[in-house]
Design brief:
The structure is a single chain. This protein has 451 residues and is α/β, with parallel strands linked by helices. The chain folds into four domains: 119 residues, NAD(P)-binding Rossmann-like Domain (Rossmann fold); 94 residues, Regulator of K+ conductance, C-terminal domain (Alpha-Beta Plaits, 2-Layer Sandwich); 91 residues, Rossmann fold (3-Layer(aba) Sandwich); 88 residues, Regulator of K+ conductance, C-terminal domain (Alpha-Beta Plaits, 2-Layer Sandwich), CATH 3.30.70.1450. Helices cover 33% and strands 25% of the residues. It is built from 14 helices and 22 strands. A six-stranded parallel β-sheet has the order 3-2-1-4-5-6, with helices on both faces. Strands 14-13-12-15-16-17 form a six-stranded parallel β-sheet, with helices on both faces. It has a five-stranded antiparallel β-sheet with strand order 7-8-11-9-10. The longest helix is centred in the last third of the chain and has 19 residues. The protein is globular and about 60 Å long. 43% of the residues are buried.
Length: 451
């Protein structure tokens, strides 16, 4: 596809890196000439220096021939206007980053009139991800496929989990709840496991599950935790605002600590059901005084990665059940994982994954048969939902008789309203949706996974 990216800040560069590996023709627009020149050298892209909301600049970038324009500048208003201009020029689809909470509702209602195909809000999208981590305390991450009927779930194998020391073959016979373990991260290594793979404590496991059986599986492997009820949030960013609103609606007891007095007063007015404290939440004496030890979950959302790391580590040491950390630096995120802190969120990666999934859905309309795409393990693994449309010799044969490429695993088959966790005797029919987990990149059709 022909894609134009306007605005090359942190999120813009992350999305450029993601999409540049997918065989698109990409043009970037930014007012910073040095930034454009640097990215042209690093990636196979075209570049235009200038104001991305200017019609002449968009025409120079061939927006009129583009399939997708993504506006990601720091200004909500500029992003909205850039999308309006792009549609006027001839762009087929547009995505705008809109961060201001005041705009959220009205822009959603008006986006078609404004020529916007999709809105992304890094803060709100990140808050949604954190809410899921708190609402499902046994789970590190969850992705949805087949319109929510199939889940791809990540868990941490903790002490006492009945998976430890078992091969996948043995687990398949032992467990009554049917799931398929399709990817495992062990330290820096990533595996698409075979039946002989042995699960170890500390592994991060990704498995597919029918939405209705997830709770049964977690219970069967001794990973059902008691619900989290009390949540402490440090930092009064918009992520904190969105998260506290969601938690309060679900009757969680939320305490939010913000260092800036004016911002704390604003949040207290907006969030009447939340206890807002004006204090420095990065000081351990403040955290103890405000009841950290009695909390079920702790979320660190300051603007400084290192502060988030330190206070989350302190919460972890104080035996808080779940400590969640905002980390913008990929290097620091890896460091936290080494220290046993696995619940880390990054706004740039949350948004990049959303846009990559949307891009794949657009490509599906243009010949690709990928319906949904999710990236796992820092982008090292892809989970793709394919529509089995193309004619081929793979249909109506047991999977054990088909030759599948190395590091590819068929994780789920969806046939009409039936969700099937496959084994060697399962077969694919034309018209099925099929979820594949793989370390390969740029697959466009289900047939690509076969030899």
């Amino acid at each position: 596809m022909k894609i134009v990216i306007i605005g090359l800040g942190t999120i813009g560069r992350t999305i450029l890196k993601t999409l540049s590996n997918e065989n698109h023709t990409i043009t970037i627009i930014d007012e910073n000439k040095e930034k454009i020149e640097d990215l042209i050298e690093r990636y196979d892209v075209f570049g235009v220096v200038g104001n991305g909301a200017c019609m002449d600049i968009q025409k120079e970038a061939n927006v009129q021939d583009s399939d997708l324009v993504i506006a990601l500048t720091e200004s909500d208003e500029l992003n909205i206007f850039a999308c309006m201009v792009a549609r006027k020029v001839g762009a087929k689809n547009t995505i705008a980053r809109v961060r201001n909470p005041d705009y959220s509702v009205q822009i959603s209602e008006m986006k078609e009139d404004l020529g916007i195909s999709m809105l992304v809000n890094p803060e709100k999208d990140t808050a949604n991800e954190i809410f899921n981590l708190i609402n499902l305390p046994s789970i590190v991450q969850v992705e949805h496929f087949a319109k929510g009927r199939v889940l791809l779930v990540e868990i941490l194998v903790e002490k006492g989990c009945s998976l430890i020391g078992e091969t996948l073959w043995a687990l398949g016979k032992k467990l009554s709840t049917k799931v398929l373990i399709c990817a495992v991260q062990r330290n820096d290594d990533v595996f698409i496991p075979s039946g002989n793979f042995v699960v170890e404590e500390g592994d991060r496991i990704h498995f597919t599950s029918d939405v209705h059986t997830l709770g049964d599986f977690l219970s069967e492997i001794n990973l059902v935790h008691s619900p989290l009820k009390r949540v402490m949030i440090v930092g009064g960013s918009n992520i904190s605002l969105y998260l506290a609103e969601q938690l309060a609606k679900k009757k969680y007891k939320v305490k939010l600590i913000e260092n800036n007095k004016q911002r704390a007063e604003e949040l207290a007015e907006i969030l009447p059901s939340v206890t807002v404290i004006h204090a420095n939440g990065t000081r351990h004496d403040v955290l103890i005084e405000e009841g950290l030890e009695a909390m079920d979950a702790f979320v660190s959302l300051t603007n400084i990665d290192e502060e988030n790391m330190v206070v989350s580590m302190f919460a972890h040491k104080m035996k808080v059940k779940k400590a969640i950390t905002q980390i913008r630096s990929d290097d620091l995120s890896g460091m936290l994982a080494e220290l046993g802190m696995h619940n880390n969120v990054s706004p740039k990666h949350v948004v990049a994954n959303r846009i990559a999934s949307y891009t794949r859905a657009l490509a599906n309309k243009r010949g690709s048969n990928v319906l949904t795409l999710s990236r796992l393990v820092n982008g090292q693994v892809e989970a793709l939902e394919f529509a089995a449309k193309k004619q081929g010799k793979i249909y109506d044969k047991p999977l054990k008789e088909l030759k599948i490429k190395e590091n590819c695993l068929i994780a789920c088959i969806i046939r009409k309203n039936q969700v099937m966790i496959p084994d060697g005797n399962s077969h694919i029919q034309q018209g099925d949706n099929v979820i594949v987990v793989t370390t390969h990149k740029n697959f466009d059709d289900l047939t690509d996974i076969f030899m």
